[in-house]
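Mods, move this if it's the wrong board.
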Amino acid sequence: MKGADYLGIESGYNTDKLADIRFTVNKGERADVPVIDQIKVTLECRVIEKTDVGSHTQLFGEILCIHADEDVIGEDGRPDMKLADPLMYDDYNLTYYSLGERIGRIGEFGKSLRKKRWSDPCKVLGHVLPISSVIREYELDAVLPLLPG
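Not the wrong board. Structure tokens:
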């Protein structure tokens, strides 16, 4: 928690933040991005769109690779967010939260409203997702770490 908070409050222009908190970095497997060893789950992404939204740039990326420590892999072989206990940051209230209890899978609540047959959307690789508030923008690639709480 201390390391994650420090990364958000200290400027990279003033110091080598990762060295300050003794985090180690390796090159990504599928994208030209840094992967921090101390992060439990990391998504390597290729940036496919950039949009200026006021104070920052919103990036949209395609997931290319998922890194996950063994202790956060669930029985189904996928990263389990309950085990990973990711840190959630509320940028408006400047507050951290931990992930709550699982309440359901995508589609369990809204599929009855659809007119078409429902298909399982849980194939992660290749999906497009927003990558919010990337502190350091990379020309072609980005990394989305899920910080442990």
